[in-house]
Amino acid sequence: MSANVNTFYEAALKYTKSAGELVLEKISLSKNVALKSSEIDLVTETDQQVEKLLIQNLGKDFPDHKFIGEESVAGGSQCTLTDSPTWIIDPIDGTMNFVHTFPHSCISIALFIEKRPEVAIIYNPMLDQLFTAKRGQGAYLNGKKIQVSKETDFKKALVMMEFGTSRDPEKMKAVMANQNILITQVHGLRALGSAALDMAMVALGAADAYFEFGIHIWDFAAGELIVTEAGGVVMDPSGGPVDRFSRRILVANCREIAEQLSKKIVQYHPTPRD
Ligand code: IPD
Fold this sequence. Notes:
Order of helices and strands: HEEHEHEHEEEEEEHEHEHEEH
Shape: globular
Strand order of the largest sheet: 3-4-5-6-7-8-9
Distance between the termini: 30 Å
CATH topology of the largest domain: Fructose-1,6-Bisphosphatase, Chain A, domain 1
Bound molecules: D-MYO-inositol-1-phosphate
Number of domains: 2
Number of strands: 14
CATH architecture of the largest domain: 2-Layer Sandwich
Number of helices: 8
Largest sheet: 7 strands, mixed
Oligomer: single chain
């Protein structure tokens, strides 16, 4: 299996780098922006081109592999994870940032086999940050091993949380409540505008935790493996194991911080499930 995993990883890396060149070329040009689920849930032609590039090339190399891609699902494809090797792709995570040329967007791609993440890549071509992981082999930034922070004191944690792409009033209420609860209890709150890059910051030890309600499997599939391979924990925000179709996630450098965060935040259950 590990020979195969290396082949899968090398192919994904090659196509992700080509996709990165495309993103870099397009970020400063004017974009055709369309709306998806809300007026702040955006998609551009580049999101679609990147997804096509990755799926076509990986599909040619590995014809029996399946795909879950953000833009394919938006176009009506199934969002189902079976035991078959499945590539889970967010072609541009942080599309809002990409539209505004805010340089924190990335290609996020993970390969799941038997519902377990085996390979993960998060690539921000604007800042040339390449986060990678293979299961059991550690997490890396541009080839250098990375580790989560050693912080265990919740008061000293830097916590990442996002506003999301929905303006549903109940969801907004939970986001605002959580900001209010946390701001006086931790060192600071941050949001990069990309779930995958937020998770990469936890893996890097630059932030201590991240949580979000309302995201999707393609936003966190790669981040999940990169965080755990860097020594961190991934769970449902209410404390149990992560349910990848519940649109909820919490990650942290350690269980103490994850559990404290989980107990303090207002819980929100996005509907529908994926
Ligand atoms: C979004 C980003 C954002 C998060 C949203 C995601 P997209 O992904 O990760 O940070 O708050 O929930 O949907 O739409 O840019 O791929």
